[in-house]
C-alpha cells in the first residue's frame, strides 16, 4: 500500500459559525487567542502551542453536542474568573459535581462554556 510522504502534510481542524465577525470578537477579545484573516471569508485561529484551526461561515450552522475545543490552562480558577468577568457563562451538566463557578473538580478540573454560535468549549487544568 502506498504511503503519504509526511513531509507534505499539515494537519488542522475546523469548525463552523454563522457569524464570522462575532467569532473574531469572541475568540480574539474574550478568549485572547490569536485570530487572523484566513482568506476566502475564513478565520485562522492559532492555539497556544501553535496549532491552527479554521473557522468558517455556515449560515445554517447547528452546534455539535460535544466539546469542539479544549484550552489547557495553568490555573483554572483564575481562567474561569477572567472569562466570567468578560461575560462568559459556564454550563452545568447532570452527572458532574460542579462548584458555584461551574468547575467540575475531577481529573482533569474542567469548565465548559459556549461561543456565540453555541459551539461548546472548555478550559481545563490537569
TrEMBL record:
Signal peptide coordinates: none
Boundaries of each VOC domain copy?
8-126
* Stated name of the protein: Glyoxalase
Q: Which Pfam families match?
A: Glyoxalase
Which source organism? Cryobacterium arcticum
Superkingdom of this protein's organism: Bacteria
* InterPro entries, alphabetized: Glyas_Bleomycin-R_OHBP_Dase, Glyas_Fos-R_dOase_dom, VOC_core
Amino acid at each position: 500500500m502506498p504511503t503519504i510522504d509526511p513531509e507534505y502534510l499539515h494537519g488542522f481542524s475546523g469548525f463552523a459559525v454563522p457569524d464570522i465577525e462575532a467569532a473574531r470578537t469572541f475568540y480574539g477579545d474574550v478568549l485572547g487567542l490569536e485570530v487572523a484573516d484566513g482568506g476566502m471569508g475564513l478565520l485562522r485561529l492559532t492555539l497556544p502551542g501553535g496549532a491552527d484551526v479554521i473557522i468558517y461561515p455556515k449560515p445554517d450552522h447547528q452546534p455539535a453536542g460535544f466539546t469542539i475545543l479544549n484550552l489547557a490552562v495553568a490555573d483554572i480558577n483564575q481562567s474561569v474568573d477572567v472569562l466570567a468577568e468578560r461575560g462568559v457563562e459556564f454550563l452545568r451538566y447532570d452527572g458532574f459535581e460542579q462548584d458555584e463557578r461551574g468547575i467540575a473538580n475531577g481529573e482533569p478540573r474542567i469548565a465548559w462554556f459556549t461561543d456565540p454560535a453555541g459551539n461548546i468549549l472548555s478550559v481545563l487544568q490537569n
